[in-house]
Design goal:
This protein is 49% helix and 7% strand. It is mostly helical.
Length: 210
């Protein structure tokens, strides 16, 4: 199975073979449909690994709002357990900022997932970023060993090259490109370097006893 799709239109559903950014899947389904399918038996390792990579990407982007409705799932042909590829959608909380005044800062002290995007991460940051998606993380990722987290982090580090980051930061309006690149580029590169540590912290957050 390929890695997670990183782009989506607003509400992908059904036959999306015309859409390469959605995996060109013949059947894209909601999280409810996916959960009903995986609830019938063990989660496919391919599904779990693809979702893990997507979740590490969420942390890299600082996107804490990853409820079930903010995912769609491309179905994959399989002779065994159903296989799904995650399609992230609704990226409105990536690069979140809560440091533009006293009141937002105070809220962030009590609602820890409301943290400002920056170059440094910690175990506490990662645990807070994982709160909203905890039900999905628990269901889909609990069976993966710590080594899988490190392997997926290594894959992301390899793919998130300086060139790829630079191209992505040029996708916005011409008037803001230089400012966005100057503000986000260094932080993205610094967070990329921390992905091995992030993977370990994320493993601990997912597997913490509740």
């Amino acid at each position: 199975m390929a890695g997670p799709c990183t782009c989506s239109k607003s509400t992908p559903h059904g036959d999306e073979r015309h859409a390469p950014t959605l995996g060109a899947s013949a059947r894209v389904v909601s999280s409810a449909v996916m959960l009903a399918a995986v609830g019938q038996g063990p989660v496919s390792p391919a599904t779990a690994r693809a979702f893990l990579r997507a979740r590490l990407l969420d942390v890299w982007l600082g996107d804490w709002s990853r409820r079930p409705d903010q995912w769609r799932w491309a179905t994959e042909p399989s002779a065994g357990a159903p296989e799904f590829r995650p399609i992230p959608r609704d990226r409105d909380q990536a690069f979140f900022q809560m440091d533009d005044g006293l009141y937002p800062w105070l809220i962030g002290q009590f609602r820890t997932r409301y943290q400002s995007f920056g170059p440094r991460l910690s175990a506490a940051n990662v645990a807070a970023l994982a709160v909203t998606a905890r039900p999905l993380d628990t269901l889909l990722l609990r069976g993966l060993p710590a080594t899988a987290y490190q392997q997926e982090a290594a894959i992301l580090r390899q793919r998130l090259t300086d060139a790829a980051i630079a191209v992505a930061l040029q996708a916005g309006p011409p008037e803001t490109r230089a400012t966005v690149a100057a503000e986000l580029g260094p932080a993205l590169r610094a967070r990329r370097a921390q992905l091995p540590a992030v993977a370990g912290w994320f493993y601990e957050a997912v597997n913490k006893r509740r």
